Amino acid sequence: MHRILVVDDDAVSQQFLVMVLNRLGHDNVVVANDGIDALIQLDAGDRNFDVICCDLDMPRMDGIEFVRHLGERCYQGKLLISSGFDGRVLESVAELARLYDLWLAGVLPKPVNRQHLLELISQPPPAIRHSINISHPTEEELRAGIEKGQFLPFFQPQVEMESGKIRSVEVLARWQHPRLGLTGPQQFIELAEGSGLITELTKRLLCDATRMMAKLPDPQLDMSINLSMASLGETGLVADFEAILEANRFPMSRLTIEATENSLMAHPIRALEVLSRLRLKGAGLAIDDFGTGFASMDRLSRFPFTELKIDKGFVIDAAQNPTNASILRASAELGRQLGLKVVAEGVASLAEWLLCRSLGVEVVQGSYISPPVDAESFRRWLLKHQGVFPLPAIAADQHPI
Ligand code: G
Ligand code: G
Ligand code: MN
After folding, report:
1. What is the reported pTM?
2. Whole-number Å distance between alpha carbons of 385 and 389
3. Neighbouring residues of the ion ligand 3, judged by CB less than 5 Å
4. CA of 226 to the centre of ligand 1 (A)
5. What's the helix, strand, coil split of the chain in %, to 5?
6. pLDDT tens, 183-199?
7. In order of start, what are the domains of the chain with their CATH numbers?
8. Of 11, 308, 357, 360, which is most buried with the most CB atoms under 10 A?
């Protein structure tokens, strides 16, 4: 039998929901009048709720803030949102819940439909629950991992849309963790930033990647690497990068540094200094994850960027989602107007390829071309393609322009 918590400030809809639940055979239902009331019940500790059904618009603490508190408490049960709000608000709440790894079973428009509620209550848990049993790497493991060379550069190609030419490759960190297996950046970048190890990690990655690049069948590929904001404060970064490239005979002019908008915001002066110096030495500079940060246009225009990378969030599903398609179109246009190379990442389907092509995106990256892969797989992928990714054959009615 489920233990259910109903959070709603409106007595009528609260009681209606309880009544429907009772009729569906759920007797173990507790009510809270707003988020604070609900948190008090949760934190009392003697109640573990299997299902929380929450309204959005409530006094004192609204449903959105409540979702954040649930995320912070790593709530493992099912979450249902009941609301009279429209799609856009509900979509952003759903996104928030997803970011917190909450199990959002669904959204119930008000007045609540009995059948719909029954379906959501009985919905089984998703196959993959990220937050269950995640064992996080520790700082000591990170330090040892860097020393022992457990970090591997993975490679994801970037292709010129017009010609299919394989122009460049982004280096993405992976950790061959002795206990957790191959882990991605979500598991360790924040830890590395917080513990001051990110710059060391980035330098190792740059060193290993440039060394591997020399052994590739196409030795003229450009390379992009992500630079964390935490590295921008490090004196000696520019000199260290130069030394690494020189040792591996990789010219600075073939390297592009990717920085996120928010990193420019956090340390604008340092960022301007470090990035300008790298640019002066010949490196390209990319605004990464463009569209997700809060940098002002003014600030962006002050940095000597050469490339704009549209965040994958706007590309994924842009072919179906008009809002994302508009953002994609506007970003591509802005990049062009500023004279930047426009790159779209997250191109996962032919439809997205065609859309990017029609919007004048110059270069694409994404699983449609190749997911990030290890050095050996990348070498084989390059050999197979002989420098050119085959342009998709476009049927007459699909032609983008
Ligand atoms: O590789 P991927 O698939 O999961 O990467 C997720 C995000 O992690 C990327 O968008 C990128 O910004 C970040 N990331 C990957 N590798 C590095 C790295 O070496 N340094 C930094 N700072 N970020 C990285
Ligand atoms: O640092 P940056 O955000 O540029 O890193 C690119 C990220 O995008 C990596 O995490 C990579 O794994 C991810 N990625 C690349 N191609 C695709 C794709 O087609 N779909 C999705 N969902 N993610 C992708
Ligand atoms: Mn990147």
Report:
1. 0.71
2. 6
3. 226, 258, 288
4. 7
5. 45, 20, 35
6. 889 889 999 999 999 99
7. 4-121 (3.40.50.2300), 139-385 (3.20.20.450)
8. 308
